[in-house]
């Protein structure tokens, strides 16, 4: 009889575990990101003391571009942005990395939505905004797929959660993975999605920046042998040249008043440089950036008749930052760095002009 009850408990427990795994999205990266509440709180306090006096205005900040690399590498780059975000819900445009393509094949000209009830965070599970289901009902079916599998093996969106949740324990998210988009599809699909989001904002009387915020997940140039990307060579002079090119691209295309012409030029620079016939830098987020900028620009133009203005918060890279001296941490590093393997990244605020 005792064995019977033990077996029954084991069966019930396994059923609960299966049900939980189907409704709550579990983190993909348990090494580079922080999923422990106490440690995340300690980490933010560490950044408070060690990130310098970088002050940027919160007024009219409605969207941003964020790094998604390991916290021990890029913590100081995340920090000046996320301390300004207090919105009730956040739309996150994420990457479709090569790991997803290897398991699911090449996905093009679509966005990918999930159907998880919640996403796991360090402080509690993060709820999903009603906007996600509205998008599913109103967006043309050929423009999206629904795949928990794709979202379960993609880390570019989950990187935002610990920082978002530290500053707002009740934040809700709308996770959107962006696949490879042609320039024509980018413009057409972004307009459709922007129309749905604008309608949602109006119907719910949401204030941009305060009630709803937009995040674009991106890492800048992935440089070195492992990435088959060594245009300038494989030494520190090459590192300087490649990072200077990143900064040039950001300055020319993502700062100041953002226009449709700038976004088109950015698409050319980081996706296919047909204008200058040069090798493109390997930005990990090139499709979310160009797509997200189009969506956000259309939303604020529709709702407020305004344009976007970009302000760079911080740019850096693994060679420059190295590893943060944050002690007694369960976090680790997902890759080593050297002149033959490094990544650039930045955070940039998008303000309503």
CATH superfamily: LigB-like
Whole-number mean pLDDT: 92
Helix and strand content put the structural class at alpha/beta
What is Rg?
Answer: 20 Å
Order of helices and strands: HEHEHEHEEEHEHHEHEEHEHEHEHE
Look up the CATH topology: Protocatechuate 4,5-dioxygenase, Chain B
Q: How many structural domains in the coordinates?
A: 1
The low-pLDDT segments are 1-21
Number of helices: 12
Helicity level: 40-55%
Question: Could you describe the 3D structure shown?
Answer:
It is a single chain. The chain is of the alpha/beta class and 353 residues long. It has one domain (2-352): Protocatechuate 4,5-dioxygenase, Chain B. Helix content is 42%, strand content 20%. The chain is built from twelve helices and 14 strands. Helix 5 crosses helix 8 (183-203), helix 9 (236-254) runs antiparallel to helix 10 (260-270) and helix 10 (260-270) runs antiparallel to helix 11. The protein is globular, with a radius of gyration of 20 Å. The model is unreliable at 1-21 (pLDDT under 50).
